[in-house]
Amino acid sequence: MIVTIDGPAGSGKSTTARAVARRLGFVYLDTGAMYRAIALAFLRNDAEATADGARTLLPDVHVNVRYQEDEMRVFLNGDDVSGAIRTVRVGNMASQISALRSVRDKLLDTQRRVGGEQAQKHGGIVVDGRDTGTVVFPDADVKIFMVADARERARRRLEQYHRQGEDATFEEVLHEIEERDEADRSRDIAPLKRAEDAVELDTTTQTIDEQVDFVVDRVAKARTQQA
Ligand code: DC
Asked: For 39-89, how does the pLDDT look when each residue is reduced to its tens digit (9 = 90+)?
């Protein structure tokens, strides 16, 4: 069973995906973390976020995913960077380099391989990102497209930054969210968009439990249909 959850930054994808995976005994695959790992490599090597920059850098960049007690960890050239990738700077670089075809091509195979292996092993995966229902797993069993009002998403992101000890104002985060939305939607390759067969879930006024129930219910329906 493959469940994809796509949507803009701050719509609640990762919190929901992680909780759905836990509830169903599946594992969670965070594709954004993989883009962030490559972004960290760009930053550490002072590489330009261009096709030329990627051509020089990418042959020496290896991103992998492993599960430790069913928790996803992301590795850059063998080092666990799961913590180091959670900064605003890395997020901004991830947004830029995720528009490059060579970067997307590099990650696509790994996402499919890890997703396939884990789905086999655990009976299912929940994967989140921007293009997981459109490009990575176009035949997924359940596809969700999560949306939420930009101000609500900014409020959630700000809370997350504060929890992580990062300093930011509401206006800065709102601006960052709006810019990110525009960049993710308007890029030529794998833009953020709802797959035709995805169900839209607006989380603006929903609690996490309601979001999780909604997705779990969809999975149950898909299982009944497949049985
Ligand atoms: O979800 P996130 O903030 O960790 O993602 C970081 C960036 O990676 C985001 O700006 C868009 C990009 N991304 C992508 O292009 N495709 C995905 N499947 C996941 C993330």
From this structure: 999 999 999 999 999 999 999 999 999 999 889 999 999 999 999 998 889
Q: In this structure, what CATH number is given to the domain that contains residue 120?
A: 3.40.50.300
In-domain check, residue 221: no
Structure tokens at 180: 């990110």
* CA angle (10 as vertex; 175, 29 as ends), nearest 5: 135
Distance from the alpha carbon of residue 181 to the mean position of ligand 1, in angstroms: 10
d(CA 81, CA 72): 11
- Indicate whether 112 belongs to any domain: yes
Could you report the per-residue pLDDT of 82-135, keeping only the tens digit for each? 999 988 899 889 999 999 999 999 999 999 999 999 999 999 999 999 999 999
Task: Select from 140, 146, 41 the least CA-distant residue to 90.
Answer: 41
Best mutation site among 42, 98, 109 for ligand 1, i.e. most ligand atoms within 8 A of its Cβ? 98
Domain encompassing residue 14: 2-214
Residue 193 identity (one-letter amino acid) = K
Q: Are 42 and 57 in contact (CB under 8 A)?
A: yes
Give domain status of residue 222, yes or no: no
Quick check: is 184 in a domain? yes
Show the DSSP H helices in the chain as ranges: 13-24, 31-44, 51-57, 88-97, 101-122, 150-163, 170-186, 208-226
Pocket test for ligand 1, best of 35, 63, 65 (most atoms within 8 A of CB): 35
Total domains in the fold of the chain: 1
